[in-house]
Each structure stands twice: as structure tokens, then as C-alpha cells.
Amino acid sequence: MVNLQEAPHLFWDGRVQSLEAQAIEPLTNPIEMDMTPPEIVSRVASQPHYQRAFAAIEVDDIRIEDIVGAIAAFERTLVTGPTVFDRWLQGEKDALNAAQKRGRMIFFTRGQCAICHIGNSFTDHEFHNVGTGTANDLGRFVVTQQAEDQGSFKTPSLRNWKGREPFMHDGRFASMREVLQFYSDPPAPEVGESELDPLELEEDEIADLLAFLETLNGAWPDLSGYAAAWEKLVSP
Questions:
Q1: What's the CATH number for 84-214?
Q2: What is the pLDDT of residues 137-186, one digit of tens each?
Q3: What pLDDT digit, counting tens, does each position of 30-74 carry?
Q4: What SS3 string covers 175-195?
Q5: Which CATH architecture group holds 1-79?
């Protein structure tokens, strides 16, 4: 949940359009927290520290909108730090080593990565079929009921990809190398029509791509000050 301030769709199938709408889903989903909105409000409103926290922003009658709004407001602060590639873009031409420069060329040319992974967050925020959908997992189609969306899933951001393993919507790949190997020689899709062209990458090309992808990782949000700020907010 980082760098999502401007995301127009959330969840792999894009079924909600705001962080507020996203926040309520795990709270109410039967296979997650499985609560009703009134139950959520009752639990939160019964806790003195939450009462004081909401009172600090002039909310005395806590509603579900206030709860998911608070969660979303926090999530919007979760922004990752500058990357090596950011430095290169800003003119530091020696920021990338030789392997990373070769990987950059593959990424933006024959690797076709930038068709979907573009912009500051390296995602087009759109939905694509790369052959990972199944008959029981149809992706965007569940939302739109459009045949062309069968097997399509939201393009994930590549900014700060490391540490978010496993990859793909179903977590089928444990490493980025496995993802690149899949793109190099993808199997026939189970559902829909895959947009992938077999890349037929050589091992040295995969190594260079991995080297470049490493440059897209910056510092994770610093949460060290939140505990003290929370204690100050809720102290009687």
C-alpha cells in the first residue's frame, strides 16, 4: 500500500476507485475480518483512545466514513523515497552502471516492459492479460462482464517492487527472475487472449534487466515517528 495517492483503480480487478472504498473491503470481506459496518463502528467507538483521536479532528459521532477516511488518509502518506533511476533521470548520468544501462535499453525497447510499466510509478494503471488468468480467476471480467477483459489484471507498479514478493495477482512467482523467465517463454493462456509476445530473453539479458529493475527501489516510508505521534494524540 505505497504510492497509491493517484491510483484510479484498486485491487487486481480494479473493482474500487478510491482508497476509502478499498479500506472497507478487508474489514467486511467474509474471508478476511468479516464484520458489518455497524459492528466496525461499534468496536471503534467503544475504545477511549479512538474516541480521543477522532475528537481531536472534531468527530464526536464516529461513522464508518470517518473510519475508512482515517485509514485512507494514513495510506496517502505512504510514499517511497527517490531511486537510483530517479537520480539518473535528473542528470546524474553515472548513477547507472553498465549492466543497468543495458537493462534500461532492454526494458524500454525489445523487452516491451514500458508498454505497461510507464510513468513515475511504472504502471499505466490499466488492465492486461498476460496469461495468468484461470477459469476460476477471471480478473477484470468479474467487474465489467466484457469478454475482452477475461484474464486481465491491473498493472502493478514497479517502483519499490523488491520486498513485495511473491509476484502476480496470485503470487505464483517467488522472484522477479521467475517473472522474467515467464515473460521470456509464456505458456498459452487458459482464458482470454494474452497480450504477451514471447521475449526469448537470453540469461545475460535477464541479468541486465534485473540490474536495471534494482534501480527502481527507493527507501520505504519512515514510520518511526508514528508511534509517538499517536501516543500524543490519544493521551488523556
A1: 1.10.760.10
A2: 999 999 999 999 999 999 999 999 999 999 999 999 999 999 999 999 99
A3: 999 999 999 999 999 999 999 999 999 999 999 999 999 999 999
A4: CHHHHHHHHHCCCCCCCCCCC
A5: Orthogonal Bundle (1.10)
Domains in the chain: boundaries:
1-79, 84-214
Place of cell 473510519: 67
**Are domains 1-79 and 84-214 of this chain identical in fold?**
yes
